[in-house]
Known about the structure:
Helices cover 36% and strands 21% of the residues. The protein is of the alpha+beta class and 466 residues long. The protein folds into four domains: 92 residues, Uridine Diphospho-n-acetylenolpyruvylglucosamine Reductase, domain 2, CATH 3.30.43.10; 119 residues, Uridine Diphospho-n-acetylenolpyruvylglucosamine Reductase, domain 3 (2-Layer Sandwich); 109 residues, Alpha-Beta Plaits, CATH 3.30.70.3450; 80 residues, Alpha-Beta Plaits, CATH 3.30.70. The strands form four sheets. Strands 12, 13, 14, 15, 16, 17, 18 and 19 form an eight-stranded antiparallel β-sheet that branches. The N terminus is likely disordered.
Amino acid sequence: MLHCGYMGMPEELLTGLREIVGPDHVLTAVEDLIPYSFDGTAALQQRPGCVVFPRQTAQVAAILKLAQRTRTPVVTRGSGTGLSGGSVPVPNCIVLCLARMDRILELDRANLTLLAEAGATTQAIADAAGAAGLFYPPDPGSMKISTIGGNVAENSGGLRGLKYGITRNYVMGLEVVLADGEVFFTGNKCVKDVAGYSLKDLFIGSEGTLGVITKVLLRLVPQPAAKKTLLALYDQMEAAAQTVSEIIAAKIIPCTLEFLDRTTLACVEAYARVGLPTDCEALLLMETDGHPAAVAEEAEQMAAIARRNQAREVRVAADNAEALRLAAARRNAFSALARVAPTTILEDATVPRSELARMVRFIQQVAQKYNLRIGTFGHMGDGNLHPTFLTDERNAEEMRRVELAAREIFEEAVRLGGTITGEHGVGLAKKAFLPLQISPVEMRMLKELRQTLDPLGILNPGKIFD
Length: 466
């Protein structure tokens, strides 16, 4: 096995890294680097110079001091589930993998908080909260393997975002290592705190460009006592969208309000065999949780609203097993689509709820215009769509059509008052589209902020903007 530095990493740097974390926790062999050369984003790959696995914050600080001194770029990584190329390496960089910093350090029942290292998985945090009768609501699709540090760095969303919010809404404090190795903790267990700027909010969603998040203090909530799951099928997308509008107008905020289009539904049924018709235009997954009496009433109301809006069929889960089976129709969407073509590009655009049906129709028109297969699913309750391109990255001409189609989709989303990304982040994949949405003044402020915190530009260079 080759143990020399890849692409000419200086031996002095590698020696310094081995002294910090131990020789067994530095990877340099080409075959060992390959798994760290990409993340969950399709068609993006670059081998790093090396990969290091710290076990404590002091080691992270020492690594960044060494990187700063040698002007070596650092790309922080958790499980690599990101979908915007945020943890794709740059040439000759250090990949700082925090997966081994995975301890849950404290669960404070009195203050309803949990303190975890950045490498703890979202599922482990949800399980720890659940074991204490508490609830950590954010549930990104990758929660079984995604890490909490990555969730914070990307400000991840999830299926329960409509009612419970996103990662930002549950972060009470952060331990951060700056580019020069300086360590600080911002935030605390107080429900109210307006002392100074909210620095923790600065690092949430910063995609590893402003500092390295090493610990996260999270807010927990009481576990809901009951939950009810419903599934409705429609012959018209507009009817599904109108159902969503009327549910919100009825002052019902479901914990889940998801949809699949016809293409996605057909793929899901072929994959999961849920027992759904494949000639529907749209499927809505609706879940309500809370006090049992309120849950029963809200489920009844949502079923009635769905039927009033010409739902072909409404299914109400009789028990938890059936609820899981119905929910599988949505939770299996990406896996089902990924089986159809060699390359699956999962995009992410958000529009106001009132524009959902129009946006889905536009995506269908774009697919026809560029002769592409696009399945669309997502969080209808908060307007977050996931147009998913089923393509082949080996076909350069088709990939060019994918790029043109994606640009039209993002331009339309912004034109309708939406955003180029609701939860995946900008990273590499979206940075060309960022000027569509933000003004030159905002772009200047972002760059000045980054320059202030990382003047040498070693942290995740090339992400969000050049």
